[in-house]
Design a protein that fits this description.
Helix content is 94%, strand content 0%. It has one domain. By secondary structure, the protein is mainly alpha-helical. The chain is built from 2 helices and no strands. It is rod-shaped and about 100 Å long. Helix 1 crosses helix 2.
């Protein structure tokens, strides 16, 4: 860092505008990188909040929904098994 400061000081003493222009460009690039990093951090924080919300929803409702779906599917399958012959007879009788 000291050598960079010396170069800048030397450039100012020598009235070399190229070094000053480069320093301004480097500062601009640094600020752009910093802004991009801050935006990325903000997106990660936002995504983490979304994931936390999804986890809360799943933990709150899924223990009730899964057994209900299993019971519903089981009931439908039971009806198909019990009334399957009647359903097949009805479909076979409706020929062209």
């Amino acid at each position: 860092m000291r050598s960079a400061a010396r170069v800048v000081e030397f450039a100012r003493d020598a009235a070399c505008p190229l070094i000053e222009v480069l320093c301004v460009e480097v500062r601009g690039i640094q600020s752009a990188i910093l802004k991009d990093l801050q935006a990325a951090r903000d997106m990660v924080v936002e995504r983490k909040a979304e994931v936390d919300m999804e986890q809360r929803w799943e933990n709150r409702f899924m223990p009730f929904i899964r057994p209900a779906l299993i019971a519903l599917i089981s009931a439908l399958l039971t009806l198909v098994v019990i009334h399957g012959q009647e359903i097949l007879k009805g479909l076979a009788g409706k020929g062209p």
